[in-house]
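Please decode residue identities from the backbone states below.
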């Protein structure tokens, strides 16, 4: 028998590939991105670009100064949104889901479904309208016709399917708001660097501001801007970011002060009441909330000093004029800064435990306020209220004749056939009703100056219910998400403030499109969700 070699039995055979020093290194090649991944990357970039364009350019765009400002902003919104939606659709066609790869199904968000129902109800109402030709554009409804409603519904649906990075859109919003505010401040003190007022009637110059136009529309935009600026200020951590956040908050505060609209105060009160509910779980942001209002009151003090030496060219609201008095603004600023200092020593546990008591106190305050209004307009009608009577005593002249307008709108709705009470009388209903029996001798009435009453007449009870359902689900989603992602606090506050302002305001192409964009953001996909279109 042959004798075996010890070396061959005790040691494994080494090959060239098994020796570490002589191993062949094969470079790793990254796997090509799947069609789904490429689509998702493109959709994120496209969505970010669209949001930046809407937040930065939409408030600033104009073509013939104030004379076609409504149409210009309407065209910009529709064209930009159509390009976004079509690009998203074509990208989906060019980059379809990967064949054979299972994808998690994601249900439509209830808010998006409700807005689609809102459009469907409006479409039915338009088909029953006596003026169906006006329903598409809605010229006698501040351009809130079927075209706008369809665009709102599709846009919210598309945004609800996206993962949105809000970092750059938020900054675009803040930059646009700062520019609008700065120009509004110039306009208030008589400076007109771009010539907006050159061919405007003298009687109109006191109520047109910046690149927005009407004071109420400007005030509505400033409330949206203040909400986003406050949300950014409350969570700013780095030194340069804090400086930028403070500067933007100051500019937007000046813009809100010069708006000349009492509805601006209503929106700011909504932000002040609702903001703490979002911050109890975040001690650092909650402690900074009084500092935020301290900046606002300090700006009011500085604005009062400027008003003492510079003449005003646009109107101020009664509340703004009172707030800007040093005897009012300085004590409020001092109280805010003192509260900020006091909260710096409160432990986070104590703050978190205060959420429910605050929510209960806020609810009680709202109920007591509502009861007080009822009593002041019934049993206690004779109670002297001084200058507050114009706000607390309801009459036909209340809110610059809004009392008369609301009564007229309710009367128009009550006289509609049952089918139109459900589905609406479509765009232009109030305008044509007013043409038969004019409410004012010097102007035609095309809106109820209350968005909810307007939707009741033009979109019916079913349309109003659909709209309120969409709003409720969007705010619920935003509230839950803001607990995890603080960047969503600003958009949520903006939507809440707009919803309250809507009780005395008009849906129009200036701020209403931004409102629906913010709703789409609130119900967008969360980062941890699976890839899905």
């Amino acid at each position: 028998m042959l004798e075996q070699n010890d070396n061959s039995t005790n040691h494994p055979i080494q090959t060239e590939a098994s020796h570490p020093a002589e191993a062949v290194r094969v470079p790793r090649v990254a796997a090509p991105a799947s069609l789904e991944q490429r689509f998702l990357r493109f959709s994120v970039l496209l969505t970010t670009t669209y949001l930046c364009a809407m937040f930065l350019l939409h408030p600033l765009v104009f073509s013939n100064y104030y004379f076609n400002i409504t149409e210009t902003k309407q065209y910009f919104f529709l064209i930009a949104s159509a390009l976004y939606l079509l690009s998203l659709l074509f990208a989906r066609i060019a980059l379809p889901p990967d064949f054979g790869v299972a994808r998690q199904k994601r249900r439509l968000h209830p808010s998006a479904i409700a807005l689609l129902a809102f459009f469907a109800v409006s479409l039915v109402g338009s088909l029953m309208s006596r003026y169906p030709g006006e329903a598409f554009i809605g010229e006698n409804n501040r351009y809130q016709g079927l075209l706008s409603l369809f665009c709102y519904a599709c846009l919210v649906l598309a945004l609800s399917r996206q993962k949105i990075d809000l970092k750059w859109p938020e900054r675009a919003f803040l930059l646009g708001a700062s520019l609008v505010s700065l120009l509004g401040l110039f306009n208030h003190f008589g400076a007109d660097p771009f010539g907006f007022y050159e061919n405007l009637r003298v009687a109109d110059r006191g109520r047109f501001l910046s690149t927005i136009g009407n004071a109420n529309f400007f005030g509505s935009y400033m409330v949206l801007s203040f909400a986003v600026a406050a949300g950014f200020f409350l969570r700013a951590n780095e030194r340069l970011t804090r400086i930028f956040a403070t500067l933007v908050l100051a500019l937007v505060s000046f813009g809100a002060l010069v708006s000349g609209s009492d509805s601006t105060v209503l929106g700011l009160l909504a932000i002040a009441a609702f903001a703490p509910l979002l911050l109890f779980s975040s001690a650092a942001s909650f402690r900074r909330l009084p500092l935020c209002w301290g900046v606002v009151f300090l700006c009011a003090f500085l604005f009062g000093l400027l008003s003492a030496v510079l003449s005003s060219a646009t109107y101020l609201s009664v509340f703004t004029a009172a707030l800007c008095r040093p005897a009012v603004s300085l004590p409020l600023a001092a109280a805010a800064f003192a509260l900020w200092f006091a909260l710096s020593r409160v432990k986070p546990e104590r703050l978190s435990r205060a959420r429910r008591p605050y929510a209960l106190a806020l609810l009680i305050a709202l109920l007591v306020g509502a009861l007080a209004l009822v009593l002041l307009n019934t049993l206690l009608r004779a109670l002297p209220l001084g200058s507050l009577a114009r706000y607390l005593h309801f009459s036909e002249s209340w809110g610059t004749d809004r009392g008369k307008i609301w009564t007229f709108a309710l009367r128009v709705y009550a006289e509609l056939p049952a089918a139109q009470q459900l589905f609406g009388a479509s765009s232009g209903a109030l305008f044509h009703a007013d043409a038969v029996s004019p409410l004012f001798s010097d102007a035609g009435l095309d809106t109820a100056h209350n968005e909810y009453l307007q939707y009741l007449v033009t979109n019916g009870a079913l349309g109003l219910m659909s709209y309120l359902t969409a709003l409720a689900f969007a705010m619920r989603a935003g509230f839950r998400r803001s607990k995890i992602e603080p960047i969503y606090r600003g958009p949520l506050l903006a939507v809440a403030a707009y919803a309250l302002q809507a009780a005395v305001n008009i849906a129009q192409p200036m701020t209403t499109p931004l409102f629906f964009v913010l709703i789409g953001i609130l119900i967008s996909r969360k980062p941890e969700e699976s890839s899905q279109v």
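Observation: The radius of gyration is 28 Å.
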